Amino acid sequence: MKKVQITETVLRDANQSLMATRLPYADYEDILPVMDKAGYYSVECWGGATFDSCLRYLNEDPWERLRNLRKNLPNCRLQMLLRGQNLLGYKHYHDDVVEKFIEFSIKNGIDVIRIFDALNDFRNIKTALEATQKYATDKTIASGCISYTQSPVHTVDKYIEMCKELKSMGFQTICLKDMAGTMTPYEAEHLIKGIKDAVGDMPLILHTHSTTGMAYMTLTKAIDAGIDVIDTATSCFSGGTSQPATETMFYALQQYGIDSGLDEEAINKVNDYFKPIKQKYVDNGQLNPKSMATDAQALVYKVPGGMLSNMIANLKDMNALDKFDDALKEIPEVRKDLGYPPLVTPLSQMVGNQAVTNVLVGERYKNISKEVKNYIKGEYGIAPAPVSEELINKVLGEGGKPVDCRDEDVKRTGAEFEDAKKALGDLARSEEDLMSYICFPDQAKKFFEYRKAKEENEAVYTIEEM
């Protein structure tokens, strides 16, 4: 019997896309034993924006969350999304930091590391792959990921060559990451058949979003074309900027006579559990109706779900939600000027924030963010197409030349751990704490101070009660 397996995304990308990753561990801990028995290929539960959100918004230790997930999902493959040399942050890190982060991730419970680079500059994922191979257990899977987008320079032939390169690098699986949900059924059919012909029986995974309304048709064509694994979200957290529904795809596959490996009773229990949780965030406004809608305009703007929900949240915070449509229209212009980068973290935030700034200021590139300047300097890698000469001259001056990102990565100090120890003192209790600080210094230190104060207050209350 033909088999197509399913990765469940509700613990990471589904809630990241719908409600900017504000789902605390406590909300879903009780359902984990059921998820453990559901038969998923993997549960995507860490990485992406979860690390930042744990520290910044949820007062959680991301490493403790991972350990708890491992304890409560003993039979499941735990999957994370890693931004190559960016790790889970928004800048490149020294190779030593990348290696140590992956060592800690595997040690604390991660099985599948899906590694991508926002520009598909595969020099930026080589260190992460080598570290994954170095610290791998018999359960570890290194999954090479392509950031899928459409532009004058992104062609089927180009993507097939990328997949060949990922295979030759030593990845065990390949994922096509259609973060904006813009892959059409026609593109899926031709792309997947072409890749399958090129890489043979290497497992191929499709990750897409329902943003544009294309996803179910695209997945169906991908299944016909030979896809091995698809990403879905439990149905109450599906649709809109999230993924297609797990149960829907389960029933569709069942009728086709394709085995998904899922337990029907378990996946329905998972959905029933999450229904009131979703409603809670709809009621308190954290899950905005805009994120739940289908927006075919994303076929023009190429905007991924997480970027859309973050733009909405940021404009709402600035009392400028009325500028949303103008900012959306500005995104393709900024993207073209920057050489058609795929809109995925950290490039999606950079392009989105620059588009918002252009609209709010009322003049294009009057204010250029530090991150966009660093991108133009070459610190993130090679752009898919030439960057606007006007922008290059504005940032680098006449005749200015970009640097090589890998030269810059190696030149970084390499003393991050010693610097973190000095900065944190007794606030740090583990090497993982130091890593949190290296990735997000302000947020991590604030969390460690909160953690210490909370424990001291609890100790006082306990003594008084005695």
Task: Give a structural overview.
Helices cover 53% and strands 8% of the residues. The chain has 466 residues and is α/β, with parallel strands linked by helices. Helix 1 (10-19) packs across helix 15 (305-317), helix 6 packs parallel to helix 7 (126-135) and helix 9 packs parallel to helix 10 (215-225).
Number of helices: 23
**Biggest pleated-sheet summary:** 8 strands, parallel, barrel
Any low-confidence stretches, pLDDT <50, length ≥5? Answer: none
Report the β-strand fraction as a percent range.
5-15%
Strand order of the largest sheet: 1-2-3-4-5-6-7-8
The outline comes out as: globular
- The overall pLDDT average reads 93
Oligomer: single chain
Helix content: 40-55%
Number of strands: 8
Q: What class would the helix/strand composition place it in? A: alpha/beta
Please tell me how large the radius of gyration is: 22 Å
The N- to C-terminal Cα distance equals 64 Å
Features:
466 residues, alpha/beta, eight-stranded parallel barrel, 23 helices, globular
Quick rundown:
The chain has 466 residues and is α/β, with parallel strands linked by helices. It is 53% helix and 8% strand.
Describe the SSE topology.
Blueprint: E1 5-8, H1 10-19, H2 25-28, H3 32-36, E2 42-47, H4 50-56, H5 62-72, E3 78-82, H6 95-107, E4 112-115, H7 126-135, E5 141-147, H8 156-169, E6 173-177, H9 185-199, E7 204-207, H10 215-225, E8 229-232, H11 246-255, H12 264-283, H13 289-292, H14 298-301, H15 305-317, H16 324-337, H17 347-361, H18 370-377, H19 389-396, H20 405-411, H21 416-424, H22 431-439, H23 441-465
